[in-house]
């Protein structure tokens, strides 16, 4: 068995021309979805920003790629570290106790991430029967480690905002390199998105094992049976329902994400 590989959705657009699953905390670019995290593409065009074939400016693309490499690497490393501390040597034996992104990034998942905005990393191999709390509780702890690491990364990146050293920037000011404020804003947002999305209680996401670790008896059995259809349900929620104007995952990410972002950049004040 393995812990769930980190999934990276960027933004879910309802328009047919923008069908790639690329979640942002405030909805589709160019649509009025409410502050503080929307990016008005029309305003960017008036400001002279040129977008590439992925619909992103160069500062957007650089910020997201750097952030996703770091975020997915730390996400998977956290799974490996916690599994090792709980008594399972499998991740260590497979070379996953490493900060080298090549140990964690999946070639197809990375290609999908660049091409369509939805990708994944290599799942960390875990033998649940080696985990000291027991298989069910142990897998819940290991699975929670990845999203927790992303929230910690978001909190650290939000410190300059909370200390007043720089302000959040929700669209790029330059044509080439991202400014510190824009990069940190993207870094915080993407790590929040990764954490919230991966905590959804559906296989193959981390949230399935986290929620399952708290269930016992008939509730656990019913939940486990439902998870056999987890990937199908997830595909339905992510790809099919947005075609008819329903996007519950995006609603959850926007709602929870905006609360977390606002709290982190002010550190609870």
Question: What is the fold's blueprint, element by element?
Answer:
Layout: E1 7-9, E2 11-12, E3 21-22, H1 41-46, H2 58-85, H3 90-93, H4 107-116, E4 118-120, H5 135-162, H6 180-198, H7 206-212, H8 217-226, H9 230-240, H10 248-266
Antiparallel strand pairs: 1-4, 2-3
Helix pairs in contact: 2-5, 2-6, 5-6, 5-7, 5-10, 6-10
Helix content: 40-55%
Secondary structure class reads: mainly alpha
What's the alpha carbon Rg, rounded to whole Å? Answer: 19 Å
With strands numbered from the N-terminus, the spatial order across the biggest sheet is: 1-4
Count of separate structural domains: 1
The parts where pLDDT drops under 50 for at least 5 residues are: 10-24, 26-53
Shape: globular
Amount of beta strand: under 5%
Number of strands: 4
Count of alpha and pi helical runs: 10
Major sheet characteristics: 2 strands, antiparallel
Mean pLDDT, to the nearest integer, reads 82
The H/E string reads EEEHHHHEHHHHHH
